[in-house]
Amino acid sequence: MITGKYPNLRLRRNRKQSWSRRLTQESTLSPNDFILPIFLIDGSNKKESISSMPGVYRYTINRISKVIDRAIKNGIPMVALFPKIKNRLKNEIGSESLNENNLVCKAIIEIKKRYKNKIGIMCDVALDPYTSHGHDGLIRSNQIVNDETIEVLINQSLLQAEMGCDVLAPSDMMDGRIGKIRKALDEKGYQNVQILSYAAKYASSFYGPFRDAVGSKGSLKSDKKTYQMDFRNSDEAMREVALDIKEGADMVMVKPGMPYLDIIKSVKEKFKIPVFAYQVSGEYSLISNAIQKKLVNEDVVVESLMAFKRAGANAIVSYYADRIDKILK
Ligand code: PBG
């Protein structure tokens, strides 16, 4: 691979001037690379800060247009909607997920009405924002049951598709759900709804602030290790991705992001399909708090995001996406 040697070969030559560094750079970031998560709350005219995620807010539906206007102006291709519903609407089976007047449904309708196809809408398919126990699936005799959960996920998918969601993102990690959701969508005429599978999703402590943001933290009494992956494994991630592709996933997600760059790279190299990375809430909070405390300067944001591109990610879900104009400047 190395075709010369010092002193006639000097790698610093290409680095000497800014124009030369720009000319030889291998990875770039643009607004096209970002998906912006938006947290929703009920009510009107509220913008709530989230203590564990400095700079991130929950919005009522009538306040999201400002955020989306700016995202469109900046060239962000897609938003991802996450609801924080009232505790009294939560129950064991997460039935609010199937209510056609729930927060996510109302937001989809509002965004589609206002923006048509100027920006894509992605919605999680999972029950955790809706269940009283905070798990992504149904519980029977202390187990998260797989196949019964899928039946609910199918209905949640169909409902979100009917409302106008463009990209369904199952984040539940049940076995076999991609195939079943694809089949149900096709049967109901939703052939064009895309599926972004959270295929390699690890049981991670980096999700802490998110659970706070959607209000599932207090309710969750145990971990998610019986369905999300063990962070010691990478072969298993390849199996998860292979299965989801076979079942009909259009795109796959690796999550969390930065601690799993090896997985992003392997998935991209092996499967040659669109791979997305999720820079999750814990990553965001660590970086943002460190910047606030002046332990590092804010250039670490671009550096952390570029790592995903270098590893092979096509796009990044990031809580920084709402400020991407400033970050890329
Ligand atoms: C729900 C879901 C989670 C995240 C996205 N969708 C949390 C979890 O699985 O507990 C985490 C996102 C983040 O931490 O930013 N299935």
Contiguous uncertain segments of 5+ residues: none
- Tell me the major beta sheet: 8 strands, parallel, barrel
What's the gyration radius in Å? 20 Å
Strand tally: 12
N-to-C span: 35 Å
Determine the mean pLDDT: 97
The tally of domains stands at 1
Q: Determine the CATH superfamily.
A: Aldolase class I
> Please, how many helices?
11
Structural class: alpha/beta
Classify the fold: give the CATH topology.
TIM Barrel
What ligand species are in this complex?
Answer: ligand PBG
CATH level-1 class: Alpha Beta
Q: Write down the secondary-structure element order.
A: HEEEHEHEEEHEHEHHEHEHHEH
**CATH architecture type:** Alpha-Beta Barrel
What is the percentage of strand-forming residues?
15-25%
* Strand order across the largest sheet: 1-4-5-8-9-10-11-12
Helix percentage: 25-40%
Morphology call: globular
Summary of the model, kept short:
With 329 residues, the chain is α/β, with parallel strands linked by helices. The chain contains eleven helices and twelve strands.
